[in-house]
Amino acid sequence: MTIYVEPQDGIVPIIKFIRRVRKKIFMNFYLIDDDRIINEIREAKKRGVDVRIIVDGKPYGMGQSKVDVKELSSTCASVKLSPPRFDASDVFDHAKYMVSEKYFEIGTANMTEASFSRNREYIYIGKNRKIRKCLMSLFISDWENSNETGIRCKELVISPGSESTILHILRTSKLVESEEVGDDTRIIETLSSRRRKLKIVIPSSASQNDIANMKKLRERGVKARLMPPDRLYMHAKAVLFKDYVFIGSQNFTSTSLNRNREVGIIIRSLSDRRKIKRIMVADWKRSEKI
Fold it and tell me: Is residue 203 reached through a cis peptide bond, with omega within 30 degrees of 0 on the bond before it?
């Protein structure tokens, strides 16, 4: 199992993941538009791989996926838009994972050029059989537009329904990187309760509401800072807590935790935790006071 950090590690880990697939690969991403990845999908189909892809039906509310589906379908992969339950107003299939017959990948990165060149992202690749089985089951349930049942894996954090787990994680959080602070009052209260034990970084380009919430957190003792996008775009969703690390697609919003399709993972490896901690501490030092 290996953690990769973007933009330092670039697109190579994803390219290698797809190239070593021999039987099947199921991909669920909010966005897939990097030409290099699309080309690897095309090559996988030429090898006879069963390639299935789910993408969101309306990223950013702009209907971009109509273009994405056409281009992805040109690879001969089987492509579907997210299930209708994730296609309501302000609800998304925001997941970012893929699983093959031998490996799985979960992270904060969309399959876009920005993810591998400008953003702070975390990507986790592993072989754990139980996690692979759970991700396969989750994908198939969304592919068939059926409710997922019997998916039990203590390492995975799956939305809808992840708010209680995220709250539990945040109650002992030490370092947080996020694209948003969000609008979930329980999340804000839990972050506030950590006071000076918590450091949190979001992008300085975040919404006015997010900046206002960061100021409130700072007033309550939380060490809150902003990352200028010209240094690094903070797209990550990562939490260092207790002896573990959480990374995933979840933002700290009520919709993300309770209505969207989102997938995250709790990482227990000491070496991976140390690697992520080094990056998060360095990011903290590069960020600016509010």
Answer: no
Taking only Cα atoms into account, the Rg of the chain, rounded to an integer number of angstroms, comes to: 18
DSSP 123: E
Asked if residue 247 lies in contact with residue 108, where contact means CB atoms within 8 angstroms, the answer is yes
Domains and CATH numbers, the chain: 2-153 (3.30.870.10), 163-254+265-289 (3.30.870.10)
Name the DSSP class of 82: P
Cα distance between residue 83 and residue 142, in whole Å:
6
Q: What does the pLDDT look like over 56-84, one tens digit per residue? A: 977 655 555 565 788 999 999 999 999 99
* N residues, the chain: 290
| CA dihedral sign of residues 26, 161, 31, 228 | negative
Residues ≥6 apart with Cβ < 8 Å to 139: 26, 28, 52, 54, 99
Please tell me the distance from the alpha carbon of residue 30 to that of residue 38, in angstroms, as a whole number.
14
Query: And the tokens for 276?
Result: 């992520």
User: At how many degrees (to 10) do helices 163-170 and 185-193 cross?
Assistant: 10
Residue appearing with tokens 């993408």: 55
Q: Copy the structure tokens of residue 133.
A: 């089985």
The three-state secondary structure class of 166 is helix
pTM passes above 0.90:
yes
Cβ–Cβ under 8 Å, residues 139 and 28: yes
For residue 106, give the H/E element and its range. Answer: strand 104-107
- pLDDT, one tens digit per residue, over 5-31 is 999 999 999 999 999 999 999 999 999
Burial of 154 (0-12, 13-18, 19+ CB in 10 A): exposed
